[in-house]
């Protein structure tokens, strides 16, 4: 077995989970906690009732397609996208309670009707969503797990790529952003080797420049201040 085969085997043997680390940070403010108690129940996706129905039925008003953001952090990008595209449904998945609280408050304050949330490890959600039901999946600045012994924890790995391929409709897109060069190379290696995906870049500026309408994130701003240059990678489901 070659070293590449060994690496692939280690990736494939990774446990079926997408989240490692803390689930809660600083104590929630009173208003954030109120939003969690009063508003999250109607926004939260319940796996027990999620069926093979068309995903647009999850939203109060008709939507043309559904997109998923994995690990939305404080929700800056998720809410900006939902506000910019009211005719598209957005599902945001985030296991960190503080991020869920902030996003819930933002959804309510902005009066958004096209966002649903999933506040837990995203893998069970990915396994319950209907095949071919998503037009786009965004994975923005995931934890790079830089130590070699932790690479199996990286979210971009063969089992999750299989999940993306199952969920994306033909012509759908997987978008990935990172400020870690090694993680960018890792992701390119995995996606370029997968015949189900096509990297859309034609010239270097295609991955050096943010996508149209990109609002940025707090993490991205911090990375730029510290001299780390983000990259924006997009792959189309064939």
TrEMBL record:
Its EC number is 2.1.1.33. Pathway: tRNA modification; N(7)-methylguanine-tRNA biosynthesis. It is an enzyme of class 2 (transferase). InterPro entries: SAM-dependent_MTases_sf (IPR029063), tRNA_(Gua-N-7)_MeTrfase_Trmb (IPR003358), tRNA_methyltr_TrmB_bact (IPR055361). Keywords: Methyltransferase, S-adenosyl-L-methionine, Transferase, tRNA processing. The keyword Transferase applies. One of its GO terms (molecular function) is tRNA (guanine(46)-N7)-methyltransferase activity. PROSITE patterns: SAM_MT_TRMB. Substrate binds at residues 147, 179, 217-220. The keyword S-adenosyl-L-methionine applies. GO terms for cellular component: tRNA methyltransferase complex. S-adenosyl-L-methionine binds at residues 69, 94, 121, 143. It catalyses: guanosine(46) in tRNA + S-adenosyl-L-methionine = N(7)-methylguanosine(46) in tRNA + S-adenosyl-L-homocysteine. Catalyzes the formation of N(7)-methylguanine at position 46 (m7G46) in tRNA. Belongs to the class I-like SAM-binding methyltransferase superfamily. TrmB family. This is tRNA (guanine-N(7)-)-methyltransferase. The gene is trmB.
């Amino acid at each position: 077995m070659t070293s590449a085969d060994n690496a692939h085997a280690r990736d494939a043997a990774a446990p079926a989970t997408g989240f490692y680390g803390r689930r809660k940070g600083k104590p929630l403010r009173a208003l954030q906690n109120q939003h969690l108690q009063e508003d999250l129940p109607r926004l939260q996706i319940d796996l027990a009732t999620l069926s093979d129905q068309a995903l647009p039925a999850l939203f109060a008003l008709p939507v043309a397609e559904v997109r998923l953001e994995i690990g939305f952090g404080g929700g800056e990008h998720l809410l900006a996208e939902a506000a910019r595209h009211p005719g598209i449904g957005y599902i945001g998945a985030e296991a960190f309670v503080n991020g869920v609280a902030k996003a819930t408050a933002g959804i309510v304050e902005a009066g958004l009707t096209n966002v649903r949330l999933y506040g837990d490890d995203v893998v069970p959600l990915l396994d319950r969503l209907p095949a071919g039901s998503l037009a786009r999946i965004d994975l923005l600045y995931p934890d790079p797990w830089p130590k070699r012994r932790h690479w199996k924890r990286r979210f971009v790995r063969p089992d999750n790529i299989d999940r993306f391929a199952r969920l994306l409709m033909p012509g759908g897109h997987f978008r990935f952003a990172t400020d870690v060069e090694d993680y960018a190379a890792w992701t390119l290696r995995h996606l370029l080797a997968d015949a189900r995906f096509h990297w859309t870049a034609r010239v270097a500026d295609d991955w050096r420049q943010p996508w149209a309408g990109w609002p940025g994130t707090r993490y991205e701003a911090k990375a730029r201040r510290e001299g780390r240059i983000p990259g924006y990678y997009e792959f189309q489901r064939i």
